[in-house]
Design goal:
Strand content: under 5%
Number of helices: 18
Radius of gyration: 26 Å
Distance between the termini: 45 Å
Shape: globular
Number of strands: 0
Largest sheet: none
Order of helices and strands: HHHHHHHHHHHHHHHHHH
Length: 438
């Protein structure tokens, strides 16, 4: 090994890159597994339904006299519709697992290259049989359709489509003449897999009377909920920033691991708020990280660029301003850049960790309200916070983490700015010398 290649002679950036890649490589492989990718894609497909349910839940909050201590609705003309708003919320957010059973099955069918419509119907049918133990007086229990049934929806979707794939690969199916239209042929081809999979689900739920949703709630739920703590949340934000700093999309890489939990926690908060009970969770999907993380780690850099002595940084600040307000941060992360920038990666990671701790503790100590709704990811934080928590003090939290980020970034940014100015002066001097020589 040459002297230059020796690990002892590696630069800080080389060591940092090596460390980040050691973390990124297994995460990237994990995210590419068909099962994980299918679950992630399926949950993303459900997000519009959750957001619509959240919007109607916000309308309910604004029109319900039972919210707050005044006994009066925040917006009077919405009061007559409050009970009707909650119906839409019940049929969207409270049916989250039902919709996920459909979308995850269809997504997994696509990954396994089987007929997608068949996979979707198979998945949702298996979920229904696996969670409903009969029809009583024309009614069924939909308790399993909410967030509490989400993990069962994931399990039944993946297992049913996987078994279907095995049957197709082994050619265990009813075969019709080629003259039969393909749609009819596909339906009959799926008949044997349907029978086997539905029978297994029926045996477990009805014959053995095993309610997996209830079992998960009593046995595993305490352990799952225990992940909602400041230590895990801070570690999550540290790792995502570490990956971003290495040029990778940290949120997309870690999202498949945490999104099922945070989505479920959001729905549980919504249900608790609707019932007038204390909301149990602090970390929810599109929650505190959306209102504090980028305002702390990117907004200060946009401000510093706008006031910079370097012309191209001011130009970039103007370009990044509008997207940045909507938390579209790629122009700064990759354009400034933050990624692989020896001057900025340390404060970027540090500020992300500080913002995570402050925001989590602010909610856990009751300084700001908990999230019970989800709005589109690009909603500006100063709108998202008050709307999704009902607490205007989220704006104070946003301002606080922005100021902390600004203070932390300032000396590092100035060093970066001076390095650019020094480089520009050197280039100007070289040009002048070259001109004089001519």
């Amino acid at each position: 090994m040459s002297k230059d290649a020796s690990p002892k002679n590696k630069s800080f950036m080389d060591k940092f890159t090596d460390f980040a890649m050691k973390i990124a490589s297994p995460l990237a492989k994990f995210a590419e597994f068909p099962v994980i990718a299918a679950v992630q894609d399926g949950l993303i497909a459900v997000m519009p339904i959750i957001m619509i349910g959240s919007i109607f839940l916000i309308f309910y909050v604004l029109g319900s006299p039972s919210i707050g201590t005044s006994g009066k609705p925040l917006i009077g003309f919405l009061a007559p519709f409050a009970s009707k708003f909650i119906v839409m919320n019940s049929l969207t957010m409270n049916f989250m697992a039902f919709y996920a059973a459909l979308t995850i099955s269809m997504s997994y069918g696509e990954k396994l290259e089987v007929e997608e419509k068949t996979a979707a119907v198979l998945g949702i049918g298996t979920f229904l049989i696996f969670t409903i133990n009969g029809v009583f007086e024309g009614q069924i229990s939909v308790a399993s359709f909410s967030a509490g049934g989400l993990f069962v929806a994931i399990l039944t979707s993946i297992m049913s489509v996987k078994i279907y794939k095995i049957f197709i690969d082994k050619d265990i199916r009813i075969k019709l003449p080629e003259s039969v239209p393909p749609n009819i042929g596909n339906a009959f081809s799926a008949l044997i897999p349907y029978l086997v999979i539905f029978t297994i689900a029926w045996t477990i739920r009805t014959i053995l009377n095993f309610d997996m949703v209830a079992w998960l709630s009593t046995v595993l739920q305490p352990y799952i909920s225990a992940a909602d703590n400041v230590y895990v949340y801070t570690l999550y934000r540290f790792l995502t920033n570490l990956l971003w700093a290495a040029g990778l999309h940290g949120d997309n890489m870690l999202g498949p691991i945490f999104t099922p939990f945070t989505t479920m926690w959001l729905q549980e908060n919504a249900a608790a708020m609707q019932a007038g009970l204390p909301m149990p969770h602090i970390w929810t999907y599109q929650g505190i990280e959306r209102i504090t993380h980028w305002p702390a780690t990117v907004w200060p850099l946009i401000f510093l660029m706008l006031t910079s002595k370097v012309k191209h940084l001011r130009t970039l600040g103007l370009v990044a301003l509008a997207p940045g307000i909507f938390t579209i941060v790629e122009p700064v992360v990759y354009g400034l850049p933050i990624a692989f920038n020896p001057f900025l990666i340390i404060p970027f990671i540090l500020v992300g960790v500080i913002a995570a701790i402050i925001s989590y503790l602010a909610v856990s100590l009751g300084f700001i309200g908990k999230f019970f709704a989800s709005l589109p990811w690009a909603t500006p934080p100063f709108i998202l916070g008050p709307a999704a928590t009902g607490d205007w003090k989220t704006i104070i939290l946003i301002a606080l983490v922005f100021i902390i980020g600004l203070i932390a970034y300032y000396p590092f940014f100035k060093m970066y700015e001076n390095s650019i100015l020094e480089k520009e002066r050197s280039e100007t001097e070289i040009k002048l010398i070259s001109k004089d020589d001519k």
